Amino acid sequence: MSETVQGVIARSKGAEVETVSVVIPDPGANDVIVKIQTCGVCHTDLAYRDGDIEDAFPFLLGHEAAGIVERVGDAVTHVEVGDFVVLNWRAVCGECRACKKGEPKYCFNTHNASKKMTLEDGTELTPALGIGAFAEKTLVHEGQCTKVDPSADPAAVGLLGCGIMAGLGAAVNTGDVQLGESVAVFGCGGVGTAAVAGAHLAGAAKIIAVDLDDEKLATAKEFGATHTINSKGKSEQEVIDAVRELTDGFGTDVAIDAVGIQPTWRQAFYSRDFAGRLVMVGVPNLTDHIDIPAIDVYGRGGSIRPAWYGDCLPERDFPAYTALFQAGKFPLDKFVSERIGLDDVEEGFATMKAGKVLRSVVEL
């Protein structure tokens, strides 16, 4: 039998979000209904609201979530009722060309629920990243549920579902930061600060945080940055020179752009040592372009690596980082800046845009 819950939707491009009644259908054979406990306010949800990702309105927003499995479909074997899970948007299929060549982190055919959640009038909703967790309950594929330690704080570990895992993975997985290497992170919002924390966890000897805001730079130091550069009012070359001055004139082994705009991308590109790795984890908008002379791309060598979801494997990474958090070795809880209610999502977007938080987390 279907059930009706409260959820937050974006009805049209740029319109303020609304809390409305959402109809959850009976789960399909491999579907799961999850009772949501927490959901982080992520920039991706704002991008959905503003029409920067696709035009499939109305959207059921929210995706960075943790909760309890409440109902399961007849063929579900991956989880059971009562399991504590973090939701993920990479439910590896095991059958696509990426999976078959041993690269499931690039799975091109990830699973989603087989049925649509709707408004009470029958209008189908598009769940953000296939999840839709700014709601009391949501419907997902069983593969989107990753079991973690049930004693962990849902507000903290739920953040592994997107932004924090994206930044952390950009350093550890995509950037492959090694013991003793140098790293520069451009942009110290939630994702960039997670990249700083990931570089610290990986054993980087020098971690340079670059941002326009002194408060964000101070926070980056709390997560492991050894040096900071306030780039406000500085030219591109001045920022690059500042990074090089901190790295014996050579540049960093790894540079991570956590903003996704041409100025920070260029700063990261030219701040690398020869053969250094550039990681792009900040998501550009649909119209941005990058202007780099081809000879510079060739002449500097190294690699340019976009980080998709931090190149994570949820079944491997979520339990591992939850365990590190529980052991006091990775500070997931420090990313939770404030805890808000379901009706406060629009305010959470404004706070995020103002750069006042690492993460606002909706608690239900």
From TrEMBL:
Cofactor(s) needed = Zn(2+)
Alphabetized SUPFAM superfamilies for the sequence:
GroES-like, NAD(P)-binding Rossmann-fold domains
One of the entry's Gene Ontology molecular-function terms is: S-(hydroxymethyl)glutathione dehydrogenase [NAD(P)+] activity
Query: Which GO terms of type biological process are on file?
Result: formaldehyde catabolic process
Keywords from the named record: Metal-binding, NAD, Oxidoreductase, Zinc
In the record, the note on similarity to other proteins reads:
Belongs to the zinc-containing alcohol dehydrogenase family.
Q: What is this protein called?
A: S-(Hydroxymethyl)mycothiol dehydrogenase
- Tell me the organism: Corynebacterium phoceense
